[in-house]
Amino acid sequence: MAFRLRTALKHGHKVAAAAGVTAASTATASVAFNSDDVVHPMEVEWDHLGLFSSYDCGALRRGFQVYRQVCATCHSIERIHYRELVGVTHTTEELVEMASEVEVVDGPNDEGEMFERPAKLTDPLPKPYENEEQGRNANAGAYPPDLSLMVKARHSGQDYLFSILTGYCDAPAGKPMMPGLYYNPYFPGGAIAMPPPLNDGGVEYEDGTPATISQQAYDVVQFLNWCAEPEADERKKQAGQYMVVLAFTALMSGYYKRFKWSPYKTRAISYIKP
Predict the structure, then answer these.
(1) Phi, psi of 223 (to 5 degrees)
(2) What's the pLDDT tens digit per position in 190-224?
(3) Residue-wise pLDDT tens digits, 87-103
(4) Are 166 and 218 contacting, i.e. CB atoms less than 8 angstroms apart?
(5) 63 and 219 in contact (C-beta within 8 Å)?
(6) Which one-letter DSSP state was computed for residue 15?
(7) 152-198 pLDDT, tens per residue?
């Protein structure tokens, strides 16, 4: 479109240029209309976002359970390995047993052939599909995105994901829905290919927490936030240490300055005529 406009203006074709501007303005208007056809995500209070707050390991364990039993059937988390979950969601023994239930392709062996083996702590979390084409074929052409950095990839990431997971409802009157699409006012355009993933009691939490839709969404979003920023707690600790060192340095610098310059500031200089 921009090339056509430049060509028309260069050669003086005013009619063609006007038509190009009209088409460009129409396209812009349509984009603005589609962008406005969305509800802004609700604001949720996340305890781990506080300056002196940390992740709730219980919520992370429940969120990982929701991911394994619900989300992992379509979505992957390729950037997280089993070893990174040690001490966060499960113990080493639990994760070794969990990983051993998954078969991964490794190799080549001495004969140059690939082989399958039980997963180890050094392996990433398993992917539901071997490649993008397989994923699209299983989901009517829509490819489920990887969730490793999904919280960072969306504006108001945590609030957006929570709103998407809990915002499914019936389409309003006058809003036609194509077959295979579901209405969600928080998704741009309102039509999303992902069916409602959560149901009340869809999982059974080990700690007895009621598995409501909102609770499952809250837990799995916290887990996805940890996947995107697993270093957040350590970063806050280091920031506290740096601030303590900075305050100590400022105090010592001020004291040394007063100690060094006090003789010069308090001395009295007398001038005697010769």
Answers:
(1) -65, -40
(2) 999 999 999 999 999 999 999 999 999 999 999 99
(3) 999 999 999 999 999 99
(4) no
(5) yes
(6) H
(7) 999 999 999 999 999 999 999 988 999 989 999 999 999 999 999 99
Q: What is the pTM of this model?
A: 0.79
Decide: 184 and 38 in contact? Cβ < 8 Å: no
Give residues with Cβ within 8 angstroms of 99, minimum separation 6: 82, 118, 119, 120, 121, 123
pLDDT at residue 140 in the model: 87
CA 264 to chain centre: 58
Question: Which residue matches tokens 């936030």?
Answer: 225
Return the structure tokens found at 131: 């490649």
Cα(202)–Cα(228) distance, integer angstroms:
25
Instruction: Tell me the two tokens of residue 77.
Output: 């988390």
d(CA 149, CA 14): 47
* Secondary structure (3-state) at 124: strand
